[in-house]
Amino acid sequence: MTTHPTLSVVVCSYNGATKLGDCLDALARQRIPVEVLVVDDGSTDGTEVVARRHGYSVVRHERNQGISAARNTGL
């Protein structure tokens, strides 16, 4: 059992590859352990590639389903 606090973050993205790297870099700099799950909501711009390049888990929707569906998938 860990005595350190941890944080779980779901990052939902639809065609957000250009800004996703900065977001994931910021999460990696946190002082506590951070578990990150990226939900790629049917992007066509390489969002999944950016997330995987940063070493994070990705769940991908084949087509855009909207932010609510992406959040639910992340949960």
Report the strand count. Answer: 3
Give the N-to-C terminal Cα separation: 23 Å
Taking all residues together, what is the mean pLDDT?
94
Estimated structural class: alpha/beta
Main β-sheet: number of strands, strand sense, barrel status?
Answer: 3 strands, parallel
Helical run tally: 3
Helix content: 25-40%
Beta fraction of the residues? 25-35%
pLDDT < 50 runs, ≥5 residues:
none
Rg (CA only): 13 Å
Q: Secondary-structure element order, as H and E? A: EHEHEH
Q: In order across it, which strands form the biggest sheet?
A: 1-2-3
What is the approximate shape? globular
Tell me about this structure.
With 75 residues, the protein is α/β, with parallel strands linked by helices. The protein is 36% helix and 27% strand. It has helices at 17-28, 47-53, 67-74, and strands at residues 7-13, 34-41, 57-61. The chain has a 3-stranded parallel β-sheet with strand order 1-2-3, sandwiched between helices. Strand 1, helix 1 and strand 2 form a beta-alpha-beta unit. The chain is globular, with a radius of gyration of 13 Å. The two termini are 23 Å apart. The mean pLDDT is 94.
